[in-house]
Specification:
163 residues; Threonyl-tRNA Synthetase, Chain A, domain 2; 19% helix
Length: 163
């Protein structure tokens, strides 16, 4: 697999809420640039995101964790998913992110690495008639900041009204 890009200006979350809000903001900004009527549905996953260890074998309760939010992209009928995945990659590049298509994942895919250390990925599904999935993830932060009492992100994210 390709090496993961190093964030030039990492912003380690100072709270779980900050991690969740930043992931949600990046997902919302991506969604707002997609065809009108698109949404991000977390119903097949842990709707609203989850916090998990960054290490395969966590060293204790303070071991680093990351917040991630998994979604299926719902679009209006007739949208070409392969073109949409490429469009999303170009969007993330326009934000100044490093964008790669990674081996070992269903293709096409795009992994967007933000300068602040957050990551978004969009991956084709199998079979290709199924919608792509989008995942947003925070950088790792101290495990003692993990909270179970913070409301999760909404189960379905809809586009913001046009300005």
């Amino acid at each position: 697999m390709e090496p993961t890009p190093v964030a030039p200006s990492p912003k380690i979350p100072t709270s779980q809420q900050e991690a969740q809000e930043t992931v949600l903001r990046y997902l919302q900004q991506t969604l707002n640039a997609l065809p009108q009527g698109s949404s991000l549905d977390g119903g097949r996953y842990i709707a609203g995101g989850d916090t998990r260890s960054c290490e395969d074998d966590p060293s204790g309760p303070d071991a680093p964790v990351r917040f991630s939010d998994w979604r299926d992209l719902q679009t209006p009928a007739g949208v070409d998913f392969n073109s949409l995945i490429a469009q999303v990659g170009e969007l993330w590049k326009s934000w100044g992110w490093q964008v790669l298509e990674r081996n070992g994942y269903e293709k096409p895919n795009r992994f967007g690495y933000a300068p602040d250390g957050y990551i978004l990925q969009i991956t084709a599904a199998h079979p290709p008639t199924y919608p792509p999935s989008i995942i947003g993830a925070s950088p790792c932060y101290p495990g003692n900041l993990r909270r179970e009492d913070i409301p999760r992100n909404p189960p379905v994210i809809t586009q913001s009204p046009p300005r």
